[in-house]
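pinging the channel bc i need a second pair of eyes. not urgent but kinda urgent?? the chain im working w is below, pasted from the shared doc
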Amino acid sequence: MPVTYASYLKLDQLLDLQEPKSSPAEHDELLFIVIHQTYELWFKQLLHELDKVARDFAGNDLFGAIATFKRVRTIMKTLVGQLDILETMTPLSFASFRNRLDTASGFQSYQFREVEFFLGYKRPNVTAPIPDGEAGKARAIGRLGQPSLVDGFYRFLAHRGVVVPESLLAKPITEPTESSEALQEELLRIYRTSPELVILFELMLDFDEGMQEWRYRHVKLVERTIGAKQGTGGSAGVEFLKTSLFKPLFPDLWVVRHRM
């Protein structure tokens, strides 16, 4: 049988995956499901692309990393844009099917935790909401024990002659990214002497800014939809989400701005 558009994309199976729990189905529940399933597909793609950046760094492939960061930056813009669609759902619309979600919560997204951990934002406690029986929990925990993209970035810089502090190169891979004044001195020098690396740095900042924008927009969406209520599945809701606001992925690239 020849490959067709529908068979290649497994379209029949894909379109059968949206199963509203409300009966009769509330109109906005389909939107809620489609948006979140789409997010998970984009998280899958983000991990795929970021794994490639890690390989680019390991192989000293500057231009490969630049090309891929252009892509992940654009994916982040799409993730932010999807919130515009979700914000068309009113609090009453969400309330009409919210109780059908039972224990389900976005805090259980193991792929998003994988993204965070791989980007150096490592917090073992945030895997707790993921049910123990889900295979994705092991995947998320596994990312905690792997070098982050930032760890690979340090080694990439060192390979290109940047003096990276030994404390960063020897940092335990389970620890989150922290800023380094010594590295900032080197980054300032690179900004003045290596324009090809500056292109990469600015794309990394674009992506970082996009992630921060997504977090802020997500917090405001939740606040707009449920206010200060407890989140779905008993999660902490808005107040917990606010704790991650404005935490840069690449802090040293931000800190050096005021010295240029």
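so The chain has a mean pLDDT of 92. and Residues 35 and 82 are 7 Å apart (CA to CA). — does that match what u expected or am i reading it wrong
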